[in-house]
Design brief:
The chain is of the alpha+beta class. It has 20 helices and 11 strands.
C-alpha cells in the first residue's frame, strides 16, 4: 500500500491504454531479494542493486511513539539519537563520528509513530566494517548520562523550532491531541518536553530491552554485494545479539464526538481546512485489506468529473482526501486550501458529500472505482523505476515495519483484489457514524469577520 496518496487525475483513455500491460504479468519481481532468519529471531533481507559500487545497511524496528507510555513519551526518539554514540568499541560520540567520516559512511536515523530505522551508505568493500559498527551500536549501546543530557538539549531546540510553525502545530499537536485524547502520547513522536526531562539511563535501557530486540527488527543489506558473503557476515556478526519476545500493543480508543480546532496565521487571503478520522491499521490482515479499499475509494473521489470533485472544484484552490497506512492506526485526512471567505461553505460541501458516501452506494460504486483501482496499480511503475539504494532501503525498511513488505511489491494484484464489498465494509466501519477532528488555519481577524467559530462550532 502506498504510504501517502496524492490526488489521482488520470483519464480513462490513459488507464485503458496501460491496462493491457498488466494482464497476465507478475510484478512481484521488481525487487529481487532473498531472506533468512537467525536463531535469535532477526530476519535478514538481501536486496541486490548493482547499478553502482555501493551498499547500504538498514536496521528497522517495529516501535515508535505508539509503543510508549505516558511517562516515556518522546524517549524512543531520544534513544534513536543515542545510537550514533559510544559503544563497547567506541569510547565516545566523537570517536564514532570520526570513524564514520574516515570510512566515508553516510548515516542517519529516523523515528516515526510506528517504526525506527538506522542506516549507513558506503563503498561495497566496507560492508563488514559497517555491519560490525551497526551491531556494536545496537547490541552494546553505551548509554551515558552526559550524552543523554546533551541530546535532550538538541531535541528541546528541535521541538521549539517545529512548534513555532502554526500549521505544523495544528497538524501534529492540536488535531491529534483531540483525535486521540488521553492516548495522544502514542502519536507524539518528539514528545512532551517535561516528560523528556525525566529521561535517564535506566528508562532508555528499559526501552531498548523491550523494543530494540532481534525479534522486533529486520536487517536489510541493499546494493552491490556478494550474496553468499553478505549472508555469512550478517550471520556471524548478529547471531549473538539477544533479546526478549516483543510485547503486545493495545489499539487506540475511538473518538466519541466531533471536535473543532482553530489555529491562526498572518495571511489574510486564504485558509486551510484539515479533517482527521481514525482509519484501519495494518497490524491485522483484515485491516490491511480495508486499507487498500480506502485507497481505492478516496482515489476515485478525486478523479475528474466525480461528483465529489465537481462539488468542491469551484470553491477550492486545491484539495486532497487520502489514507495514510500506519501499523496500528491509519489516519484518514481531508485537506483543502480555500479562499478565506469559503471556509464554512467548503466544510458544508464536504459534510454533504461525505454523507452521500455513507448513505448512497450509487454515489461511490460507479466506473470511477474501476478507474481508481487501475490508476493506483500504475504505482507499480514507480517501484520499477527506483534505482537509488537509499530510496530502496528507506522504502523496504518502512514497509516491512508497517507489515506491507513484501506484498507491496505487487501493487497491481493488491489493488485489483479490492472488491466493492471491501469498500462497503470500509465505509461501514470507518465512515458511518464516525466522529472527526476539524482543524482550521486562518487569519484571526478574517475568522472573526466571517464569524467562523460561531458558525462551525
Amino acid at each position: 500500500m502506498i504510504l501517502k496518496k496524492s490526488k489521482v487525475f488520470l483519464s480513462i483513455i490513459f488507464i485503458l491504454f496501460f491496462t493491457f500491460i498488466f494482464i497476465a504479468q507478475d510484478y512481484s519481481h521488481l525487487l529481487k531479494y532473498s531472506s533468512f532468519t537467525l536463531e535469535n529471531g532477526l530476519t535478514v533481507y538481501l536486496v541486490p542493486k548493482t547499478n553502482s559500487p555501493l551498499v547500504s545497511v538498514w536496521l528497522s524496528f517495529k516501535t515508535g511513539a505508539y509503543t510508549e507510555t505516558l511517562d516515556t513519551n518522546g524517549m524512543t526518539h531520544l534513544f534513536e539519537h543515542m545510537f550514533f554514540k559510544a559503544n563497547k568499541n567506541m569510547k565516545s560520540a566523537e570517536d564514532y563520528f570520526k570513524t564514520l567520516n574516515k570510512l566515508g559512511i553516510i548515516y542517519n536515523g529516523y523515528t516515526s509513530k510506528d517504526y525506527v530505522y538506522y542506516y549507513y551508505i558506503l563503498p561495497k568493500f566496507l560492508l563488514e566494517d559497517a555491519l560490525r559498527l551497526m551491531y556494536d551500536s545496537i547490541a552494546h549501546t553505551a548509554l551515558d548520562h552526559e550524552e543523554i543530557e546533551r541530546e535532550k538539549e538538541v531535541i528541546f531546540e528541535e521541538y521549539n523550532l517545529r512548534n513555532s510553525d502554526p500549521e505544523y502545530y495544528l497538524l501534529t499537536k492540536l488535531m491529534p491531541q483531540a483525535l486521540y485524547s488521553d492516548q495522544f502520547f502514542r502519536f507524539d513522536i518528539i514528545g512532551d518536553m517535561e516528560i523528556l526531562k525525566t529521561a535517564n539511563v535506566e528508562k532508555l535501557q528499559n526501552i531498548k530491552n523491550k523494543y530494540f530486540i532481534p525479534k522486533n527488527s529486520a536487517l536489510f543489506i541493499v546494493g552491490d554485494f556478494d550474496n553468499d558473503q553478505a549472508k555469512k557476515l550478517a550471520t556471524q556478526i548478529f547471531e549473538d545479539w539477544q533479546g526478549a519476545d516483543p510485547s503486545d500493543i493495545e489499539t487506540v480508543k475511538e473518538l466519541k464526538e466531533n471536535v473543532v480546532i482553530f489555529n491562526y496565521m498572518q495571511n489574510p487571503y486564504y485558509a486551510k481546512i484539515y479533517i482527521m478520522l481514525n482509519g484501519p491499521g495494518s497490524y491485522k490482515e483484515d485491516e490491511e485489506r480495508l486499507g487498500y479499499a480506502a485507497d481505492v475509494l478516496l482515489a476515485s473521489l478525486g478523479m475528474n468529473n466525480h461528483p465529489f470533485e465537481k462539488s468542491l472544484a469551484p470553491y477550492v484552490y486545491e484539495w486532497d482526501f487520502y489514507y495514510r497506512a500506519d501499523l496500528f492506526d491509519g489516519p484518514i485526512y481531508f485537506y483543502a486550501l480555500v479562499p478565506v471567505n469559503q471556509v464554512h461553505n467548503v466544510y458544508r460541501i464536504f459534510k454533504e458529500n461525505f454523507n452521500k458516501i455513507v448513505n448512497n452506494e450509487s454515489y461511490w460504486n460507479n466506473p470511477f472505482i474501476i478507474n481508481a483501482r487501475q490508476a493506483l496499480a500504475l504505482n507499480q511503475f514507480n517501484l520499477n523505476k527506483t534505482r537509488n539504494i537509499e530510496e530502496v532501503g528507506s522504502f523496504i525498511s518502512k514497509t516491512w515495519a508497517t507489515n506491507f513488505f513484501p506484498k507491496i511489491l505487487d501493487l497491481f494484484n493488491q489493488y485489483n483484489s479490492v472488491t466493492e464489498d471491501d469498500i462497503k465494509e470500509f465505509i461501514s466501519k470507518y465512515f458511518a457514524n464516525k466522529k472527526w477532528v476539524l482543524g482550521i488555519l486562518v487569519n484571526k481577524e478574517k475568522s472573526n469577520s466571517f464569524q467562523y467559530e460561531k458558525l462551525i462550532k
